[in-house]
């Protein structure tokens, strides 16, 4: 059997003397969609940042296609095939939509039908209408579309989305969920952090819930859908 696409084992991360992750474990196979769930401040974003090389790992392993990438620089992790759609979008204010997509385009794996700027415009026609606008001239929803498109044109093996629909209007949220469903059906491996559990159950294969930096539940969409007590215990406000 081939190695999992992603295997996080015993992951620990600390900010100075304050430890925030205590032995996180997560496994994803190629082509799967998975989620990290939990209330705000429980360690989801820290897990993603450690995975992308943006936070130092105190202990544990992060294996991508069987290779331990813990401690790699973010640029090396990106070239290995991991792309992050960060919380807050983080579009460059002085680059146009076109410039974002052209600057990030790469097809290092030689994908037969790669994500290109033109293909992103097909996915998000609104971006084509705004292709000469600067990043700071876009609405929040347009910035999120651009952030997803910018990640896609790197043609990643694993696409990670941190709070993909946070702060968006309902109609724009629906567009983003439709985009993720399309990517999922095309076989794109996706790891998502978001708060809309019903949408995530429909999208993902498996789920990991984090509480105070530890994994408190893991299971399938069917198992999570069948036990709303888990929602109230770990996801409710």
- Give the integer mean of the pLDDT values: 94
What is the total tally of β strands? 10
Secondary-structure element string: EEEHEEHEHHHHEHEHEEHH
- Seen as an oligomer or otherwise, the chain set is single chain
Helix content: 25-40%
Radius of gyration: 17 Å
Strand content: 25-35%
Q: How are the strands of the biggest sheet laid out side by side?
A: 6-7-8-3-9-10
Short description:
The chain is an alpha/beta fold and 237 residues long.
Provide an overview of this structure.
The protein is built from ten helices and ten strands. The strands form two sheets. It has a six-stranded mixed β-sheet with strand order 6-7-8-3-9-10, sandwiched between helices. Strands 2-1-4-5 form a four-stranded antiparallel β-sheet, with helices on one face. The model has no long low-confidence stretch (mean pLDDT 94).
Keywords summarizing the entry:
237 residues, alpha/beta, 6-stranded mixed beta sheet, 4-stranded antiparallel beta sheet, 10 strands
